[in-house]
Specification:
Helices cover about 30% and strands about 20% of the residues. It is globular. It is built from three helices and five strands; from the N terminus they run αβββαββα. Bound molecules: adenosine monophosphate (AMP). The site of adenosine monophosphate has 13 residues, from loops.
């Protein structure tokens, strides 16, 4: 059965899209630690990051850097944190999180946004790509 993220790539589940390349995709996390929290994924569905082939791993990091630079330009923050966990969704994803403090990195404090706020955040990040 395809992962929820494969369904997002295929347009079967909606998302707030940030960027897409032939092999990679980025979209806003639906339950963000902070405004602009973004997930970067390989289209290839692999569960654990260390199981990615080296080319896909390096490509994912290059793509995440590109998206992270746009994020840092679009969202006021001290810096963008980069985290890989993957305990919830078995499809490799890099969390890019605009950080004001350590609290934003803990996954214990969540922020909520309306649909129109999510759309505006995504548009702001896309405009910096
Ligand atoms: P983890 O697998 O622990 O790294 O966390 C999975 C992340 O995916 C969480 O931060 C969720 O909020 C996020 N997530 C789960 N479903 C969706 C979705 N449909 N759209 C966007 N983000 C999602």
């Amino acid at each position: 059965m395809p992962s929820i993220f494969t369904k997002i790539i295929n347009g079967e589940i909606p998302c707030y899209k940030i960027a897409e390349e032939e092999d990679y995709f980025a979209f806003l996390d639906i339950n963000p630690n902070a405004k602009g929290h973004t997930l970067c994924i390989p289209k290839k569905e692999v569960d654990k990051i260390m199981d990615l082939d080296e080319e896909t791993y390096m490509g994912l990091m290059r793509f995440s850097r590109k998206v992270g630079m746009a994020l840092e330009a679009a969202i006021p923050c001290k810096r963008v944190g980069v985290t890989v966990i993957g305990l919830e969704v078995p499809h490799v994803h890099v969390h890019l999180i605009p950080l004001q403090s350590m609290a934003n990195a803990t996954f214990q404090h969540k922020e909520s946004f309306t649909k129109s706020e999510f759309k505006e955040i995504a548009a702001n990040i896309r405009a910096r790509l």
